[in-house]
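Request: Not sure, any thoughts?
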Amino acid sequence: MVQNSLSRTMRIIVGAIVGAFLGFFIGLIGESILPGLGLLFTAIPLSMSITLSAIGLVMGAVIGSNTDARRYNEVEYKVEDDIKIPLREEQLDIETHRVKTSDVDIHKDVITEEKTITVPVSREELVVEKSVGDNEKTETMRIPLSEERIDVNKENVQLNEVSVYKAEFQDTETIDETLKKEKLEIDAESEDKS
C-alpha cells in the first residue's frame, strides 16, 4: 500500500513537471509566432508562457495521477533468456514479551473477637448439722474451706499452614493475519506464421 501511494505520488510529480515544461515552451512559441494570441490572457496579469506553464502543471499532475501504474511494474522476459524470477512471500515473526499485570501484597491480619465461655467451678465447705430440741429440728452450718478460681492464659496454636509461590502456566492464543505471496503468471501469445 505504501509502495502504490509512493509510485502514484511520483507519477503526479513527474506529470506536473513535464506538463509545466510543455506549457512554458508552448507559451514561448505562441508569443513569438502568434503575438495576437497573448490578448486572450490579458485578464491575467502574467505572460502567456507563465499562464500556460501553470495550466500544464495542473494538467500534467492530473494525467500523471490517472495513469495505470501496473504496466510499469510488469517486466517482459524472452523465452530465449535464462531467467531466474524470485518469488517472495510474507512470513510471520512472532515474539512474546512479559508485561506486569498486578502487584500482590501478602501480610497477616490479626482479627479480634469476643468469646463467652461457661466454666464449671467447685468449692469445698464444711457442713455441720446439729439436732436441736425434741422436735428433732436440724440446724445446718456451712464453713467454706476451699474453692476453684479461674485462671485465663492465652497461647498461640497453629491452625494451618499456607504456601505462597509463583507458578507458570501455558495458554494458547490464536492470531489471524493476512499474508501476501507472489505467484508467477505466464501469458503466452502464439504467433501466426501464415
Notes: The radius of gyration is 54 Å.
